Amino acid sequence: MTLVILEAALHDKIWGGTALKDFHFPIKGDHVGEAWAIAAHKNGESIIKDGPFAGQTLTQLWQDNPNLFGGHEANEAFPLLIKILDAHQDLSIQVHPNDTQSREKYGKTECWYILDATPNAKIYYGHYAQSRDELKAMVEKEDWDHMLRTVPVKKGDFFYVPAGTFHALGAGIVALETQQSSDTTYRFYDFDRVDATTGQKRDLQIADALDVTTVPHHDPVLKQTTTIVDQTIVTRLVTSVKFTVEKLSVRGLSMFNLAHHYELFTVIDGAGRVNETAVKKGDSFILFDDEAISYALDGDMTIIKSFVTKDDNPDQRF
């Protein structure tokens, strides 16, 4: 079984801070907002740390070794992107397009696992408009108090954010984001902030955002399940059309079988071993089924795992 550990691409953001240093990322500034932990996108690339593929980007590995991933078309893009976000301030109120609406290869359906949150932290999640005309009128009037729906959050919460959902992380939240590999965001509102570098407000894409927002908003109902594998509690957080996400609470030696050609992992707390390889909080890695399908997790750690959802199991979707 091949295992590759990845080095994240770090991105400064107007709303970022320094919380990502707690995940052992080499933070050099005080506005680091995103660590693209598992990324094969033109706007951010993970680098393989060691082993026979050391120094390669994930895109290179994907393009040059399609057999590792179970095979794919020559022009097909790596489908998922895993980030850790530090929302030191509120993110912009935004929405993402679906596959049909996107100008990229994919739309942007995503989800958040809340890694940390200050007291009274909240997310912006959905809106109160009942029609597109009402939504447009609220945006034009900047009637954010009546339009923005907020939800209080705490460490350990999980939210599924399908394309078309009006949303933003609020200040004081650190989250792991699992998403389609897209960087397309349409902003409704950015709290009138001015970028210190440019001296200008960030661009808004209100017309595009209105076109792709789901109206009215409905919270998805998730079919979450919990199982025990040896010394690990496995919580399936979501199974959607685009991806499946699980939380693995490892408290000792546990044996697993890789059910897909490749699966993505990020250690969000603690430390341990994957087979004979040591991993710690902040490490992200990919396992491949090229030599064997079984692998061992050991230690005291919590991991978020994701993979592309199989089309042959629609009954497990929310």
Automatic annotation (TrEMBL):
It is an enzyme of class 5 (isomerase). One of its GO terms (molecular function) is zinc ion binding. One of its GO terms (biological process) is carbohydrate metabolic process. Its cofactor is Zn(2+). Gene3D superfamilies: Jelly Rolls. It comes from the Bacteria. Its EC number is 5.3.1.8. The keyword Metal-binding applies. Binds 1 zinc ion per subunit. It holds the Pfam family PMI_typeI_cat. InterPro entries: Carb_Metab_Reg_Kinase/Isom (IPR051804), Man6P_isomerase_Firm_short (IPR014628), MPI_cupin_dom (IPR049071), PMI_typeI_cat (IPR046457), RmlC-like_jellyroll (IPR014710), RmlC_Cupin_sf (IPR011051). It catalyses: D-mannose 6-phosphate = D-fructose 6-phosphate. The active site is at 187. Residues 235-307 form the Mannose-6-phosphate isomerase cupin domain. Residues 5-114 form the Phosphomannose isomerase type I catalytic domain. The keyword DNA damage does not apply. Keywords: Isomerase, Metal-binding, Zinc. Zn(2+) binds at residues 96, 110, 167. Belongs to the mannose-6-phosphate isomerase type 1 family. This is Mannose-6-phosphate isomerase. It comes from Leuconostoc pseudomesenteroides.
